Amino acid sequence: MQANDVRVLKSAAIPTFAVGVVAVAVSLLAVGGKGALGAAIGTLLVGVFFSISVVAVSYAARVSPQMMAIAAMVSYLVKVVAIMVVLASFRDTTAWNTQAFAWTVVVCTLVWTGFEVRAFMKTKLLYVDPEAGVPGKGDS
């Protein structure tokens, strides 16, 4: 994983987990222990899914720019489908409060996405390789 990718991951993960802690506290006060458990699981779900996505795109970027784009699209699709499956699977659970869980997933997803976009916009990436040789000038 490149340094830029680690910065993006940290820039999105830290605010997301901070919002998750707030969601756990609010759910605990509003709904009780089951609400706090639902919010904690929702925060963990978002953190794990989005971290895997960043790692997959980072790995694909080392292969080629085309693979990076494909990995980003596929990981996004898999992420959305997987979250929908998890939400549908646990819709009728009584182990935790499903509304606290669902709202935490939505809020943490928005926070992660927003801070990930912010991190990418602040990252200084070169558009050309400054150490590349010029064809026809004897450089290889």
UniProtKB/TrEMBL annotation:
Source organism phylogeny: Bacteria, Bacillati, Actinomycetota, Actinomycetes, Streptosporangiales
Keyword Transmembrane: yes
Chain segments annotated as transmembrane: 12-31, 37-61, 68-90, 96-115
Keywords assigned by UniProt, alphabetized: Membrane, Transmembrane, Transmembrane helix
Name of protein: ATP synthase protein I
